[in-house]
Amino acid sequence: MGQSHGDEPFVTGIVSNSYGNVIVTDGIPTDEKFFEFDATTGTLQGFMQYTLEGEEAPRCMVIPDMINGVKVTTIGSNLFGYSDISDFIDGSAIRFSIVDCIIVPEGVTTIENNAFLGGGTLAIILPESLQRIGMNAFRGNNINWLTIPKNVTFIGDNALSVLSTYNYNADLFKIVNQTGKSFDWGAITGTGTSEFVTGVIPTNDEVGNKEITITDK
Length: 217
Description:
Elements: E1 4-5, E2 8-9, E3 13-17, E4 20-24, E5 35-38, E6 43-47, E7 60-62, E8 66-67, E9 70-71, E10 74-75, H1 85-88, E11 89-90, E12 93-94, E13 101-103, E14 110-111, E15 123-125, E16 132-133, E17 145-148, E18 154-155, E19 174-177, E20 183-184, H2 185-189, E21 195-196, E22 199-201, E23 212-215
Parallel strand pairs: 6-10, 7-13, 10-14, 13-15, 14-16, 16-18, 17-19, 19-23
Antiparallel strand pairs: 1-2, 3-4, 5-6, 8-9, 11-12, 20-21, 22-23
């Protein structure tokens, strides 16, 4: 049961503070009817913003840990229907945000290439069970900070791509690396080559001439 604030029910959503965009949640998963799911592989294959009956999904997507009694283990490619970044960018403008926030449940081990491409999402929570993050996984969003859980061993190129031209992930300023491992954060953010465990990605035009800090906490 969700909390309440006065007469208003508490719902999952975004609050912004000095740290960045933060998800607050009532813990209630988004209804299964908004997802396409392959029960044979445990792969989430699609997200429908509207049902055929016209019902709109919540603005914060809380992925269920099980659908139809089967555990969700993989977030498949192109969950929002964009096959590549050119599909998401319409001329010189980015299409509207599909969801404000995403919570990935424990039990998910893999986020495939392009998984959350084009969501326009402000914040994402990842589970400790996560091991792999594919190429372009969070590209085309508006994340300003992200925690990489301790069991992640692979992060694909442009997974957190920033590109000031189209203003996606343009406000990214911090990545919390809980793995203790070295990654090429330059390749991950699409800004060049900067491989280390913790440190600072040098400023350049691609990130709007600002620093992105990689920290362990």
